[in-house]
Amino acid sequence: MTAPTRSFGDVTIDWLCESGHSFQATGQTDSRSCPQCSKRSYVVTLYQCEVHGRMEIMLGYDAEQDDVRVTRWRLPSRGWVTSEEKLRCPRCRRALRRAPRDPLAPIGRKIKTRTTD
Question: Within a domain: residue 23?
Answer without folding.
Answer: yes
